[in-house]
Amino acid sequence: MPFVNVPHLHLLMNHVPTVGTVIGLGLFLLSFVRRSEHLRHASLEVFFLIALASLPVYLTGLAAQGAIAGSAGVSDAAIAAHHDRAMLAFTFVEITGFVAWLALWQFRRLARPAGWTAPAFLLLGVVTLALMADAASVGGEIRHPEIKISETAIAASGWFTAASVEGFVTNSPWVWPAAETLHFIGLSLLFGVLFLVNLRLLGAGALRSVSYASLHRLLPWGMLGLGVNLVTGMLFTIAAPDQYINNTPFYWKMGCLMIAGVNMLYLTVFDKLWALEPGDDAAFLDKAIAASSIGAWVGVIYAGRMLPFIGNAF
Amino acid sequence: MWLEGSALATWVREAPTILAFATILTLHTFGMGVLVGASAVLSLRLLGVGGNVPLVPLRILFRVVWGGFWINLVTGTLLFTADATTRGVQPLYFIKLFFVAIGVVSVILIERHVYGGNTDPPVVSATAKRLAFLSLVAWVVAITAGRLLAYVR
Amino acid sequence: MPFILSVGLTVVLVVVLTAAVGVLIDRAAG
């Protein structure tokens, strides 16, 4: 097994957001042609997973940047431009992923999907695809002399850049503490909701008399907590990447986060959970999943809090 | 002074093991997560934006809140002893404690108002809703003050 | 003092916005 380092992972994964967006959108459109609601749900689930996977792609990209910036034969301007375009594309893939999740959640609660979510998803998805393609082609500029695009293509990308995020954080000392505070509030909301939902699945005490459907309604609050934490978390990593890319607990945290993210999808869409009536006990597999979900979130919090202690951050 | 110099405080602050300051701080974070999280879910439900989860089974959340509170009382005290001279005279520290107190009292009053009547289903009065809102505000302020303590001396 | 005020106001703003989105989503679910 050849040695695989983090920058290598970026090369392995970097086509996931682009190809994945095409597949997700493609399946969604196909679901209208085939008039298949199952296919529609599947396409939204695929897109959610692509949005989830885009996070490690982004972070390994930061590590790759750290590894090769300044080397001979590498265009630093292209790296900076690629990062800026990727930051924009990433923002949109996450927003689209949230809308996809919302559509899936709404499918459960309403007889038909809410009117605006499907068109919104399609529109956002197309914009995401365009931005991803742009970011990817600039990425090729970094070390692929066979596909030279013009210099203007990698010119400055306006105000939404990694450098402006870094500048914002450096010049305003209140930003970092505010972001940390929001990160704590977000984690409390997120963990509060998911702890309760998983406790129900584990059959804790009086909670067994609650239907899963009534708790399902709380999931958007959990997602909002996750959203706040994703935004504040990206602020930290973009403003100070060196504190994270060589920090081992940070990768544990991201690993646990991926597991927890998949679990979130599972809690939102699986039929047999939705079917749990008051008094029903969940299946053993679901209890095991519930326990591992709590474990994953505990891992995220633990690794996050340990960043300055176990890792070499700060 | 004497508190900070004590063997326990010195261990918390300076022991070269991850089981000291780092672990105590991590437990404090978990305590906060469950305490504020459970309290928030309860408040959202009472304010009518958390669906119609039946209230009687939700009573278990109070146990979660208290669990988190005791963990944080113990870890918080340990953290305080390690830095008593600075924290002991800091207005921000007392602001944090004040809002924690408001949060705790509001949770106690919520339990009394909603479940005290022993009706089934429990009645959610306007007072209970105001308390629910108050508790949300109190925890947000407490967390903000707590985080600022790392930056303000 | 302006430092604490900036942190506080930002936190309040984001919390209020997030809560507003949450309420809208919950309302839409009926």
Q: Helices and strands in order, then pairings?
A:
The complex is a heterotrimer of chains A (314), B (153) and C (30).
Chain A (H helix, E strand, L loop, with lengths): L5 H8 L2 H18 L3 H32 L7 H34 L7 H24 L21 H10 L3 H28 L9 H5 L2 H21 L2 H4 L2 H22 L1 H4 L9 H22 L9
Helix pairs in contact in A: 1-3, 2-3, 2-5, 3-4, 3-11, 4-5, 7-9, 7-13, 11-13
Chain B lengths: L1 H4 L1 H8 L6 H26 L13 H22 L2 H4 L3 H25 L10 H23 L5
Helix pairs in contact in B: 2-4, 3-4, 3-7, 6-7
Chain C lengths: L1 H27 L2
Low-confidence regions of chain C: none
Structural class of chain B: mainly alpha
The low-confidence runs of chain B, each spanning 5 or more residues with pLDDT under 50, are none
Describe the sheet with the most strands of chain C: none
Average pLDDT of chain B, rounded to a whole number, is 90
Number of strands of chain C: 0
- Percentage beta strand of chain C: under 5%
Task: Tell me, briefly, the overall form of chain B.
Answer: elongated
Oligomer: heterotrimer
Please state the structural category of chain C.
Answer: mainly alpha
Q: Can you give the mean pLDDT of chain C?
A: 92
What are the secondary-structure elements of chain C, in order, as H or E?
Answer: H
Largest interface: A-B, 36 and 39 residues
Number of helices of chain C: 1
* Strand tally of chain B: 0
Estimated helix fraction of chain C: over 70%
Order of helices and strands of chain B: HHHHHHH
Output the keywords.
heterotrimer; A: 314 residues; mainly alpha; B: 153 residues; elongated
Structure description:
Chain A has 314 residues and is an all-alpha fold. In chain A, 74% of the residues lie in helices and 0% in strands. In chain A, helix 3 (37-68) packs antiparallel against helix 11 (248-269), helix 7 runs antiparallel to helix 9 (219-239) and helix 11 (248-269) packs antiparallel against helix 13. Chain A is globular and about 65 Å long. Chain A starts with 5 loop residues before the first helix and ends in a 9-residue tail after the last helix. With 153 residues, chain B is mainly α. Chain B has one domain (2-148). Chain B has helices at residues 2-5, 7-14, 21-46, 60-81, 84-87, 91-115, 126-148. The two termini of chain B are 17 Å apart. The mean pLDDT of chain B is 90. Chain C is built from 1 helix and no strands. Chain C has one helix spanning 2-28. The N and C termini of chain C lie far apart (44 Å).
